[in-house]
C-alpha cells in the first residue's frame, strides 16, 4: 500500500465482482489499467462471494458495480458500464464535486466501513 493510500482522505475505488461473471472477467484487466491512470487512488477488486464478510448482505444485481469513497465518506455505489472511460470520467468529476453522494447513503456507508475494516484486501496490481 502506498503512503498516499494510507491518508485519511484517500480515495477508494472498489469493484464488486464475482468469479463466475463473464463481464467481470473481461473488465478486470481494464480496471487494473484504470488503476494505473489514478495512482492517487486505491483500487480493490472485491469478489462478493469469496468475501461475504466484506460484501455483507449487499444485493449486487448488475456487474460491474462500483463503490467510490473518499476517506470515510462514500461518494457512489452502483453499477457502471464495463467501459473504463465511463469510470474514468466519473472519478475525475467526483474529485471536484464535494457534494457527490450515493443514492442509498446508508448502504454505501455500511459497505465502506466493512471495506475499511478488512485490512487484508489486496490492492489491484498496477
Short overview:
The chain is α+β, with helices and mostly antiparallel strands. The protein has helices at 22-37, 52-55, 84-94, 105-117, and strands at 11-17, 41-47, 65-70, 73-79.
Can you offer a commentary on this structure?
The chain is of the alpha+beta class and 126 residues long. Helix content is 35%, strand content 21%. The chain has four helices and four strands. The chain has helices at 22-37, 52-55, 84-94, 105-117; strands at 11-17, 41-47, 65-70, 73-79. The protein has a four-stranded mixed sheet, with helices on both faces. Strand 1, helix 1 and strand 2 form a beta-alpha-beta unit. The longest helix has 16 residues, at 22-37. Residues 1-5 have low confidence and may be disordered.
Number of helices: 4
Strand order of the largest sheet: 2-1-3-4
Round the Cα radius of gyration to an integer and report it. Answer: 13 Å
What is the averaged pLDDT score? 86
User: Got a strand count?
Assistant: 4
Q: Low-confidence stretches at least 5 residues in length (pLDDT < 50)?
A: 1-5
Instruction: Work out the helicity level.
Output: 25-40%
Percent of residues in β-strands = 15-25%
Major β-sheet profile = 4 strands, mixed
Class derived from helix and strand content: alpha+beta
Shape: globular
Measured distance between first and last alpha carbons: 11 Å
Could you spell the SSE succession in H and E letters? Answer: EHEHEEHH
